[in-house]
Amino acid sequence: MACLLLRMIAPADIPAGLGSAEAIREGDRFPRKAFRPRNNRNLSRKRRRWSLRSPHADSKYASLRFDPESGMNLPLVSSLLTSTAGEVAVSAEQKVYNVVLKQAALVKQQPRSSTALDVKPDTVIPGSVGLLKEAYDRCGEVCAEYAKTFYLGTLLMTPERRRAIWAIYVWCRRTDELVDGPNASQITPTALDRWESRLDDVFAGRPYDMLDAALSDTVSKYPVDIQPFRDMIEGMRMDLKKSRYKNFDELYLYCYYVAGTVGLMSVPVMGIAPESKATTESVYGSALALGLANQLTNILRDVGEDARRGRIYLPQDELAQAGLSDEDIFGGKVTEKWRSFMKNQIKRARMFFQQAEAGVTELNRASRWPVWASLQLYRQILDEIEANDYNNFTKRAYVSKAKKLLALPVAYGKSLISPSSLSQSNLAKT
Ligand SMILES: CC(C)=CCC/C(C)=C/CC/C(C)=C/CC/C(C)=C/[C@@H]1[C@@H](COP(=O)(O)OP(=O)(O)O)[C@]1(C)CC/C=C(\C)CC/C=C(\C)CCC=C(C)C
């Protein structure tokens, strides 16, 4: 009955079919009341084109740069950019780091706690009792349908955290489906603007449908900043208008938008272990790194597939340095030049995984397993690309079921390592 009464009406500007799953497409309409507004900041973003002047051009694959202030090991990419007019601007890395600091500052306002009771209790609104549970259950169903292994991992988390992660997952999935789903061709920048104003409503406690309602509840209970959500939508805008990336700085920003943001959204819910001595910033730095590593891996796996859609998510300057051009990508021939280029790209992705690893142990115990599992499964894709002799044009690198199954107990074992048992943490201490 509740379902019938609350059947969602898709907003006119977002095509009715947002995704392939019914639940993603049509979260049931939710009564617009009940959620406390918070974090509703309206940050405007200026976009300018900058050309890269990397002071570390020859070492950019090789090392991490330690930032003493945050305890973050930042990959050594450019930090200074100059416009064609010679003005100096901050790099993508610096821009993203500012979001990391902002999210970490929000989290720091709350004491670290190991219990499930560190979240605010449900707001009980007459007439909506039970609807919230239904909304979260729906998010869980979507998550189980799209990401079974990850869903199973979330079952280890406390019920409150698990459902919050589901709500975030569903919002990310819906956002991604806007540009990657079956109705992607109908998506315009205006539709994304509307999706963003709907996001504002979610954070202001005015959810549009049931799936939004779950997220509205989540962001009212956990210190989740709106900026990473906005930034993910920005990534979708970027995907609409851009099919080439001049250099790694541009690609870094894209990867942050579409995947690094996920790390920043998730950690406030997953929580940092109370016994962790790591700085909040460093844990967020690792979360960002895992998102970047996953996305870079995704890109390297899908080179051929993307090329068939006319897209090349590889730094153009590095391609040129390797003696490769767009034509080589479209031609899809595995040559020595390609192998050598790929080796460097894989090296860089592994560097980000390495940086991410340092933070996983610092998370709350119950949150570590799904993160370790996702890290291992994604990282193994890089091994598979190598095993395919770098043919990512016509062969899709995938991790076999057997390897996936094996990764789960290994991940579980790693998740038992607590921050306190590490005598010398890789992360800076507060
Ligand atoms: C435990 C865990 C993994 C939590 C994250 C849950 C969550 C909210 C996931 C949302 C993922 C999503 C739908 C993102 C939309 C954009 C997108 C599609 C990004 C790509 C993911 C792969 O998705 P896809 O299903 O398309 O993959 P296949 O092509 O089918 O292989 C991405 C590549 C990026 C996803 C990014 C993450 C999962 C970031 C994970 C980082 C953390 C959870 C932080 C961990 C904390 C520390 C301290 C390391």
TrEMBL record:
Its EC number is 2.5.1.32. GO terms for molecular function: 15-cis-phytoene synthase activity; geranylgeranyl diphosphate synthase activity; squalene synthase [NAD(P)H] activity. It is an enzyme of class 2 (transferase). It catalyses: 2 (2E,6E,10E)-geranylgeranyl diphosphate = 15-cis-phytoene + 2 diphosphate. InterPro entries: Isoprenoid_synthase_dom_sf (IPR008949), Squ/phyt_synthse (IPR002060), Squalene/phytoene_synthase_CS (IPR019845), Trans_IPPS_bact-type (IPR044843), Trans_IPPS_HH (IPR033904). One of its GO terms (cellular component) is plastoglobule. SUPFAM superfamilies: Terpenoid synthases. It holds the Pfam family SQS_PSY. Keywords: Carotenoid biosynthesis, Isoprene biosynthesis, Transferase, Transit peptide. CDD domains: Trans_IPPS_HH. It comes from the Eukaryota. GO terms for biological process: carotenoid biosynthetic process. Belongs to the phytoene/squalene synthase family. This is 15-cis-phytoene synthase. It comes from Musa acuminata AAA Group (dessert banana). The gene is PSY1.
